[in-house]
Amino acid sequence: MEARAVARYVRMSPRKARRVIDLVRGVPVDRALNILHFTQKSASVPIEKTLRSAVANMLNNEGASKIEPETLVVKEAFVDMGFSFKRFRAASMGRAMRMKRPSCHITIVVATTEDVLES
Questions:
Q1: CA 44 to CA 21: how far, in whole Å?
Q2: Between 44-59 and 14-21, two packed helices, what is the crossing angle to 10 degrees?
Q3: How far is CA 95 from the centre of its chain?
Q4: pLDDT for res 105
Q5: Distance between CA 74 and CA 114 in Å, rounded?
Q6: Fewer Cβ within 10 Å of end Cβ, the chain: N or C?
Q7: Which parts of 1-119 fold into alpha helices (H)?
Q8: Class of the 2-118 domain?
Q9: How many Å is the Cα radius of gyration of the chain?
Q10: How far apart are CA 11 and CA 85, in angstroms?
């Protein structure tokens, strides 16, 4: 049994978020939360929030009453490119330069240890 959580349009570069999400892929959930809590990167805050949401989704599933949170593992974790906000910034000689403010989509899938070992 598995559950997923998606955080969409997080105002952060996907490259910065991927650096942090690589730390928790394939790790047990309690250890992953510990890693994210003590990581000094700004991307760790929305990733930790998404991971907590995935765990809550797993525990609220039908038939998941006998699942213990200690047996959960981060099965999949990836970051996709989102919409880029186009903005303009003043440049020299009265011109305007285009700026892109990227966003990303964070997806985390958690599963029980038995499901991860089977696949």
A1: 8
A2: 60
A3: 38
A4: 98
A5: 12
A6: C
A7: 14-21, 29-37, 44-59, 113-118
A8: alpha beta
A9: 18
A10: 9
